[in-house]
Amino acid sequence: MNRLPDCFFWILLLLALMAGNAHAQLSWQMMEPLAIAPPAKAGRQIIRLNEPVSAKRLRISLTLQASAPGPSSCTVRFLATTDGNPSSGSAWRPMFPSNFGASQGSLARSGDGIELRNFMDATQLGVDAGLPANDITGLAIDIRSLDGTPSDLRMPSLRVERATTLTTNVALGCPVQITSQGSHAVSAGFLTDGQLDDVVSLNSTRKFTVDLKQHRNLDHVSIRLRSTAMGRATTPAMRLEVYDSNQDGALPIWRSDARAQAISSVVSNDSLVLIRATGGEGTFAGRYLKLSAVEEQAVLEVTEMEAYEIMVPLGVVMTAQGRSTRATTSLTVPAGATWMTFAIEHPQPEDPVTLGRHWRILGFHDEWLAGTASAEVESRCPPPGEYEFQAQIRQSDGEWGDAKYRVPLIVPVPFWQRGGVLGTLVALAIILAAGLAWYIGRRIMARRVAELERRNALSNERARIARDMHDAVGSQLTQLAVLHEIVAEELALDDTARGRLKQLTDTARSSVAALDAVVWAVNPRNDNLANMAGYLTQVAREYLTPMGIVCRQDVPNEWPEKIVSSHVRHEIHLAFREALQNVVKHAQATEVALTLRHTDGRFTATIADNGKGLPGNLEGMEKNGLDNMRQRLASLGGHCRVQDRPGGGTLVELQVPL
After folding, report:
1. At residue 615, what are phi and psi to the nearest 5 degrees?
2. How many beta carbons lie within 10 A of that of residue 299, not counting itself?
3. Helix H segments across 277-409?
4. In the 3-class helix/strand/coil scheme, how is 253-272 assigned residue by residue?
5. What is the pLDDT of residue 594?
6. Cα 281 from chain centroid?
7. Hey, which end of the chain has fewer CB within 10 Å, N or C?
8. Under the phi-then-psi rule, with left for phi > 0, alpha for psi from -120 to 50, and beta for the rest, what region is 346?
9. What is the pLDDT of residues 406-425, one digit of tens each?
């Protein structure tokens, strides 16, 4: 089979792993490879890495190609060495596969390797495997037939890269030994593979030893158990010991006996033993973790062991009044500062993990406050005194670490608050405030007097205009209407002349009514809510009663003291008359219910009739009238709502803020 171009091959590999038969779904992320091997036959393939590698896991991607038609099967093992010049004679240690998948065939774990059965022609295999040590210099891939003999398969491509784990668990992928009485050590890498699908029984004759690959200062260790004693209050006791040497006779640096509360889950029935330094004796640090059962005949099923190092913020930079200060032995806030910003510096884990964090100023607000994504937090400056700034990190398993970052925080007393300075400043402030208050009071009083004089002059002018319009123009229009009536009665006129003379009389009377409305709007005595409500009720009676329409009014007897300007009253009156006119002209109603209210700062007038309701399509003057009503009220910040009533008729609601 011809070799595919690298980019096309990796696309096919990704699609195949997503669709094929796989043990576990791998989270693929293309990275810069640590090594790419040339085409080679299967068997044992040795790869020299470009430089020594330390990681929780490596991701190995390879292609296996059959040399003959028909289904093929094989076993695949991955090994690593720290020898300076990797070769077939180097000391090779197995790498435990955690996640793996293949585009063809069926996969199963076989010891510390993988068994691949019944793939046709070629298959792409992807494996995440933990390293047995740090500073790995070479890898070996051992591919054999199921009977253990070297396989005749070919391996056209191979790629090795670091696997992103997104956890602060330093035990992930670390080698594990199960030591049983009277038997040799066997691999149990699934105890640190990050999954809870495999278990191993722990009893008084069997111990687990996890090699953390280097000395670690521990914060806590989590041991996850499969609960088998349903109904028991607690699980049997177990012993955790921490060593710096795995030699026989070595003494533990730290030791603890612990139990797990039987926290049962409907799905997994798992329990958790959370062990911290305070739960044992000695120094909670070392390279090897040894776990054993304490009670005779007790059996515990362990699914995972996790270890977390001490993680504490590295420092903090405080910014106040535009000045930034890095904490050394303490932090001093500039005098007079009101707000402070703290930039918390965090350690960088091996993998790009987002760490949780919280902080507090002990003695000011003792409760923990959540940190931000930018690692910058703000606080109001506490009163003068001595405090302690604290910060803490949360590990990827959700547990807060025991270690805290602490630095003294000193808030000095401002100089103006010290001794006689404070008294002098207070006296000066009182004198200055008194003088300023006197000056401001004089200015405010002068402005108020000027404003009152202006308003009085304006009110007097409006009252004069209203009187002149009523006395001069109003009386003349009334006289004109009366003269038209006298002429119509005294002279012998034909029907046409008499009809035109009546039109003149009606026009004069309409002009008088319109003039009365203008005079009412201009007169300053009507600039209040009570007068406006009374005028609207009077307009409704005078307009509807002559037309034979009963007007039922629901109007409060008392109104709040509220100033209503002439412009607002004028616009409300015109919209109100337009609503009454629509009832008379189009509704064919016999009764109108008028409701006036002032609630929550809004004046509402509701006109409800028992007529025929709104027509299907509004056209002509009727549509223009409704548009005029809406525009008038919208100019005042209000609205006009027109709708059919459920029992028949039309409801018009006029509402404006006052």
Report:
1. -70, 165
2. 14
3. none
4. CEEEEECCECCCCCCCCEEE
5. 94
6. 43
7. N
8. beta
9. 999 999 887 766 666 667 77
Per-residue DSSP letter, 415: G
Report the SS3 class of residue 63: strand
Cβ 389 vs Cβ 407: under 8 Å:
yes
> Could you report the per-residue pLDDT of 138-149, keeping only the tens digit for each?
999 999 888 888
Least confident of 42-46, 170-174, 453-457, 624-628: 453-457
With bands split at pLDDT 50, 70 and 90, how would you rate the model's confidence at 52? very high
Q: Is the distance from CB of 134 to CB of 214 less than 8 angstroms?
A: yes
Which distant-in-sequence residues (6+ apart) come within 8 Å of 560 by Cβ? Answer: 529, 598
Secondary structure (DSSP) of 234-248: BPPPEEEEEES--ST
The closest of 411, 315, 323 to 364, measured between CA atoms, is 411
Q: What is the DSSP string of 462-489?
A: HHHHHHHIIIIIIHHHHHHHHHHHHHHH
Alpha carbons 543 and 581: distance in angstroms, whole number: 8
Residue that has been written with the tokens 């008038």 in this structure: 632
- Report the 10 Å Cβ neighbour count for 58: 24
**Averaged pLDDT of the chain:** 81
Sign of CA dihedral 357, 362, 367, 372: negative
- Dist CA 532 CA 603 (whole Å): 11
Tokens at 551, concatenated: 């007007």
Q: pLDDT band at 260, cuts 50/70/90? A: low
> DSSP letter string over 139-187?
EEEEEE-TTSSBP--EEEEEEEEEPP----BTTTT--EEEEETTS--EE
User: pLDDT grade, residue 23 (50/70/90)?
Assistant: very low
Are the CB atoms for 350 and 381 separated by under 8 Å?
Answer: no
Alpha helices in 361-474 (DSSP H): 419-468
List C-alpha distances in Å: 460 to 21, 352, 517, 562: 96, 80, 19, 20
Q: Which residue type does 169 have?
A: N
Say how far apart CA 642 and CA 613 lie, in whole Å.
10
